[in-house]
Amino acid sequence: METTESPPESTAVAASIENNTTLDPSVSHSLSPPKPMEINDSTTEPKAINDSTPEPAPEPQSQPETQPRKRRRRRKKIFTDMISTTASRIRALRPNPKPSAVSAVSADANFDDSPSGHHRKRRGTSDLSKEVDIEALIAISVGFPVDSLTEEEIEANVVNQIGGAEQANYIIVRNHILSRWRSNVDVWLTKDHVLESIRAEHKNLVNSAYSFLLHHGYINFGVAPAIKDVKSKLSDELPKGSVIVIGAGLSGLVAARQLIFLGFKVVVLEGRARPGGRVRTKKMSGTDDSVVGAADLGGSVLTGINGNPLGVLARQLGFPLHKVRDICPLYLPNGRMVNSDVDSKVEVSFNKLLDRVCKLRQGIMEEVRSIDISLGTALEAFRLVYKVAEEPLERMLLDWHLANLEYANATLMSNLSMAFWDQDDPYEMGGDHCFIPGGNERLVRALAEDLPIFYNCPVESVRYGSDGVLVYAGGQEYRSDMVLCTAPLGVLKKGSIEFVPNLPQRKIDAIERLGFGLLNKVAILFPYDFWGGEIDTFGHLTEDPNMRGEFFLFYSYSSVAGGPLLVALVAGEAAVKFEKMYPVESVNRVLEILKGIFSPKGIAVPDPVQAVCTRWGQDQFSYGSYSYVAIGASGDDYDILAENVADRLFFAGEATNRQYPATMHGAFLSGMREAAHIMRVARRRLVSATSQKAYYTNHEIETNDVDPLFETPDLVFGSFSILYDPLSKDMESNALLRVAIRSEKTGSGSTYLYGLIQMKQAMELNSLEEDVNRMEMLTHSFRVSLVGRNGLCNAAESLIGRIKLSKSALV
Ligand SMILES: Cc1cc2nc3c(=O)[nH]c(=O)nc-3n(C[C@H](O)[C@H](O)[C@H](O)COP(=O)(O)OP(=O)(O)OC[C@H]3O[C@@H](n4cnc5c(N)ncnc54)[C@H](O)[C@@H]3O)c2cc1C
């Protein structure tokens, strides 16, 4: 809900806000109507860096250490030398040459690079090596380590043995599948397609890697028509249970889509009247719609495009991305531009201070692990010791950099943990920072399409137990097997949702320890672009250090908003004070600053067409902007927030993502992660239910005439053994199935269950990887119930008779 006030007659200052009456963070104020004037046509076309061309491989060289004006983060290291040591392996994985293809190049070096297989090329070793390197780089950009498995992969048992040759080959196959799909994200990549470029004897690795990447949402995800089409066809085949998703932000939307694909019944309960949560694009316009613009009031910049799943969505939807240009002039309070020498000098000093703090903390952490102080305190101490920025101008510049850090972390320097504030740096997405023209809500709309979302449905209470979950929202009761809570950390801190029983103490402590900070924005639509379209950002210095975050950075959205739009950021202490100010007062303050910068250049600042001030701290569905590592907290707390409770209650959202917190892509990836997690738990529950049934049906049987027959089975895979009908070769003839179930209750190794299936079904089971998949196919697709020896039907008994006869004849 949004409060919009009619514009005052003469001046913008008269507008006011109804305090605390807004459910939505933004309060929009139509100020004075636009005066007739010519539209300055200097806006540049958005630079399409991500159109239909395949995603470029990330640059192997690491980027410069510092990224002025951006959120300062250290760059991820890319171990190119380690990558190339794996290159030789690829030769053993590629298909053999056709017998007719005679070449001086090693047969192993053949590689079919076309999806259709029509254009076979012969590759030299160095080509292949380069290709493997590129595939590895793409995998790294998506978040996979270069020479080891992720925890998710280990949990999914992608290889039989950790660390051996099988693992090394698996990694190459996994990287190949990933980059294959990333080269054309508009189509559904099939396993057969992958097998065209991997030798048949490695089919098991392809099965394993393909199934992992598919179920964990690393391939074939998104909103391309072909992907949605195949997903909807596959989705309803295997009902796995039901899940209520709390929240229709990025994490909730992504999880809901993936869960539906994985076969769950899903309902999304959203407190607001719209999807997107902290991604919100506000359409702004004047009274006559002659000027319009789209302002992202929440998440706006895709911070690193390499491997970014939101970049994939943009490609699928055909949205060209606009690279945020690095040029960012800084202006003094008197409107003059900061001298570039002083600017660079202070920036270098600032980065040195940060590096010194990093070295100091290494020493401290080795000595006493529990000590933590604020990053602000540590930096100030070093500043005094090294006499940095003692001149007023330098001090102002340093404060500007500190404000930039306070923006990146959405909190004051005095709240940030010196020890762990940047714990996510090594994982940072590489590549350009980008905007999506028209705003990020375009992605949200595509993700929300066709999902069962109940809006205006704030969840009040969640009761969970061994039988399932009850959710109370908007006077209604909802039941499901599991719940995925994506409510922001601010909401969890506030205790707006009651959990019965209480959340585990360890989670409650992590919720308290982690910080949830504040960043606010003022978006102003002007009648024309008076600041010039060739830059995307400019900064403004403030004399009062306590207010250094007040409108310290301006984003120009002229290139992407569809109109002349400026967004001023309010960070640190100023962001907190800002929420108590009247919006008109804030807008006037922004205008004053703009006039101070542009009037001396002879450029008049026109009256705004419309202005919007955010209030993320008062928003009852977020109570802040995004998470940060507060003093005393650490990266572990993100993991604890992500832990499920009793296999019934699951958590996603940016504050559950240790590697990518506080970001839109972090939220996206956490949704995918939890969908896969829920799937794993549902499968485990299925297997354990079957094994309990096995115990109760079987443990009274003393003698078993069937097991000796299985000493020489016709087919064995995993825990499954098969005996065929000795009198028939028909694929539809009956076969006797025995499944070994490990039962902890019996304490005596395996218990056996039996079933009657067809010979062709036995083949189909054999073609699957992992017993959980086979069990699923058996129960859901073939609808076969396993029974104890005494529960077998007449047809099975007569088959057993025939098998006994034929085996005795062989003796
Ligand atoms: C001002 C601002 C600027 C940002 N800038 C950037 C940026 O430039 N780049 C970037 O990558 N990220 C940025 N972010 C962060 C990014 O927007 C978030 O990390 C991300 O959108 C969070 O998604 P989520 O799904 O975790 O949570 P949310 O989007 O908050 O989704 C949670 C959902 O739960 C709903 N909900 C809450 N309580 C209840 C309840 N009781 N019952 C039912 N529903 C409930 C909420 O309404 C919401 O829809 C910014 C955020 C803000 C606020």
What can you tell me about this protein's structure?
The structure is a single chain. With 811 residues, this protein is an alpha+beta fold. It folds into 5 domains: 199 residues, Polyamine Oxidase, Chain A, domain 2, CATH 3.90.660; 126 residues, Arc Repressor Mutant, subunit A, CATH 1.10.10; 170 residues, 3-Layer(bba) Sandwich (FAD/NAD(P)-binding domain), CATH 3.50.50; 87 residues; 112 residues, no CATH class. The protein contains 23 helices and 30 strands. The strands form 8 sheets. Strands 1-2-24-20-23-22-21-11 form an 8-stranded mixed β-sheet, with helices on both faces. It has a 5-stranded parallel β-sheet with strand order 13-6-5-17-26, with helices on one face. A hairpin with a 7-residue loop joins strand 3 and strand 4. The longest helix is centred in the C-terminal third of the chain and has 35 residues. The N terminus is likely disordered. Flavin-adenine dinucleotide binds next to helix 9 and helix 20. The site of flavin-adenine dinucleotide has 40 residues, from helix 9 and helix 20.
Unreliably modeled segments: 1-92, 95-122
The proportion of residues forming helix, as a percent range, comes to: 25-40%
Major pleated sheet = 8 strands, mixed
If classified by CATH, what would the architecture of the largest domain be? Alpha-Beta Complex
CATH topology of the largest domain: Polyamine Oxidase, Chain A, domain 2
Strand content: 15-25%
Structural class assignment: alpha+beta
Helix count from the secondary structure assignment:
23
Molecules bound to protein = flavin-adenine dinucleotide
Mean pLDDT: 83
CATH class of the largest domain: Alpha Beta
**Radius of gyration over C-alpha positions, nearest whole angstrom:** 30 Å
